Amino acid sequence: MARRKLVYEGKAKIMYEGPEPGTMVQYFKDDATAFNAEKKAVIDGKGVLNNRLSEFFMVGLGNIGVPTHFIKRLNMREQLIRACEIIPLEIIVRNVAAGSLSTRLGIEEGTALPRPIIEFCYKDDKLGDPLVAEEHIIAFGWASQQDLDDIVALALRVNDFLSGCMLAVGIKLVDFKIEVGRVWDNDFQRLILADEISPDSCRLWDIETGKKLDKDVFRRDLGSLTDAYTEVARRLGVLPNNSGPVTRPTLIN
């Protein structure tokens, strides 16, 4: 078998050239990072869980008409996806005050927001993915006003879908991050949901206890990240209820 061509390696995923033109293979790593990669660990099986959970959400979103890059899951760690031009923005949708929003504005963590708030960060690890305004995005040509209008509409649809999925299994969707890509059909541009949707990119709290079921478990040393992600997968029916934890973490020095 010919060796696949590496296209890009990030903190949590590796992208390979796909088997057909216009496709890529997305590989989910076990690496966990926080605080702009200042904290690192290898959590055995995390990539498997995120692959399955992202597939679950992408398929569900596709079924309600949200365009995504997802084509199919290839195996336990890989997905076949549509190649796209990633817009250099992280789109954050917040339903409850937490994380950097609470820190920046002095709002108590857990405060319900009057409506979903959408924030944009410029994707640049060296700069720490800084928060940017729509004026910056348009002025520097990262996206047009029409793109931003479409991105906001897409993000709110994703929020509605994810909130409903989580509420049904006793989980509060606090916030989440998505990325959006451009694809071209002849001369016509479309925006599609890209990257992943998993507990790596969401804040998820148990509705009754407030227990964290997302990467904050790793950020704040609150216990086993694998157990938290496994719990989300079990509740959503992605894993059978009698399945055990996937792994134990191994820290990187």
Automatic annotation (TrEMBL):
Q: Which GO terms describe its cellular component?
A: cytosol
InterPro entries with a match to the protein in the record? SAICAR_synt/ADE2_N (IPR028923), SAICAR_synt_PurC (IPR033934), SAICAR_synth (IPR001636), SAICAR_synthetase (IPR050089), SAICAR_synthetase_CS (IPR018236)
Regions annotated as coiled coil: none
EC number of the protein = 6.3.2.6
Q: Which reaction(s) are listed as its catalytic activity?
A: 5-amino-1-(5-phospho-D-ribosyl)imidazole-4-carboxylate + L-aspartate + ATP = (2S)-2-[5-amino-1-(5-phospho-beta-D-ribosyl)imidazole-4-carboxamido]succinate + ADP + phosphate + 2 H(+)
Q: Which UniProt keywords apply?
A: ATP-binding, Ligase, Nucleotide-binding, Purine biosynthesis
Top EC class of this enzyme:
ligase
User: Mind telling me which SUPFAM superfamilies this protein's record contains?
Assistant: SAICAR synthase-like
Any one GO MF term held by the record is: ATP binding
Q: In which pathway does it act?
A: Purine metabolism; IMP biosynthesis via de novo pathway; 5-amino-1-(5-phospho-D-ribosyl)imidazole-4-carboxamide from 5-amino-1-(5-phospho-D-ribosyl)imidazole-4-carboxylate: step 1/2
Q: Name one GO biological process term.
A: 'de novo' IMP biosynthetic process
Ranges for domain SAICAR synthetase/ADE2 N-terminal: 7-235
UniProt-listed HAMAP family: SAICAR_synth
Q: Give the record's family classification.
A: Belongs to the SAICAR synthetase family.
Entry protein name: Phosphoribosylaminoimidazole-succinocarboxamide synthase
